[in-house]
Amino acid sequence: MDLRFWGVRGGIPTPEAGKLRYGGNTSCLSVELPDGTLIILDAGTGLRLLGNDLRRRHPQGGIQGHILFSHLHWDHIQGIPFFKPLFNPGNHFEFIGQRPEGTTLQAQLEGQQNYAYFPVDMGHMSSRKSFREIGEESFTLGCATITSRRLNHPGGCMGYRIQSGGASIVYATDNEHTGPGPEAAVVELARGADLLIFDTNYTPEEYSSGRQGWGHSTWEQAVVNARAAGVDRLVLFHHDQDHDDAELEVIEALAAEAFPRSVAAREGMLIRLDGQARGMEERMLIHVPEPLLHDVRNSGSACA
Fold first, then answer.
1. N or C: which terminus of the chain carries fewer CB neighbours within 10 A?
2. CATH second-level architecture of 2-299?
């Protein structure tokens, strides 16, 4: 299956010169399964880029996708109004997220496009739309089994494991790891996974200087969980809006020193997982887009 990062930031988009190497759009990933099923993880501003790519590949429509939301904070839903495939009546998208108290997932998502905040409401988006509310459970999407588990974040958050054809990806963003040892919920979800994508919004120094309870973790906490779960690779994700490229290089290098198969997420990065690889074949390919390769090589980052 193919995993691509369309937005890797947390908080707010950062269209600044010193942050272009890792990227400035907020959380959005796409997973394309061997049977063609499209799974989208979160709908931050990176969703606009994914939408443009989908329209280029499917100009007549016919797209069917499933959007899994970790939660509905702004940086995870900001891209929805600008996701062009939602305006094509030939497309169908299923919105999947945690079951809210006292309202519905549909009402929460439509609220973002209330006329007071945005001139086009979701009713004017002509694609077919359906909504599924979930708890901690397992379900299938195409040829993949999805497992959802609650994480530690203000207002609640879901982590997801996507398992298909012997390959496994775990998406555990916006999770605050507390305590020195591994976190049971994360370890259970990620045990033996090929890839763990984990929230590393803060440095250890930032976290200890008054940011406890804000719902995010550090690269050190990510490494603790990656080791305990026995994952093959760790992807640092949900980069803080104030961390520039130079700071992220340092964070990436520190994580790779502690857990060698670590890499910081970059906008446009493609990870291809081959569950059928045998012998000496590499079952995972990590490709950074051509405009960024020069910077990555100079920084000594471990991207393969």
1. C
2. 4-Layer Sandwich (3.60)
- Would you list the domain boundaries of the chain? 2-299
Helix axes 245-258, 290-299, angle to 10 degrees: 60
* CB-count burial class (<10 Å; 0-12, 13-18, 19+) for 82: middle
Give the pLDDT score at 97. Answer: 98
* C-alpha angle 225-273-78 in degrees, rounded to nearest 5: 70
Q: Are strands 64-68 and 38-41 parallel, antiparallel or unpaired?
A: parallel
pLDDT in tens, 195-228: 999 999 899 999 888 777 767 889 999 999 999 9
Q: Are 234 and 220 in contact (CB under 8 A)?
A: no
Neighbours of 250 (CB within 10 A): 13
Q: Rounded CA gap, 171 and 78, in Å?
A: 19
- pTM (2 decimals)? 0.92
Residue 225 tokens read as 């969980």
pLDDT of residue 298: 42
Beta bridge partners of 272: 2, 285
Can you give the length of the chain in residues?
304
Q: Which two tokens stand for residue 295?
A: 């910077």
Tokens of 165: 């054809």
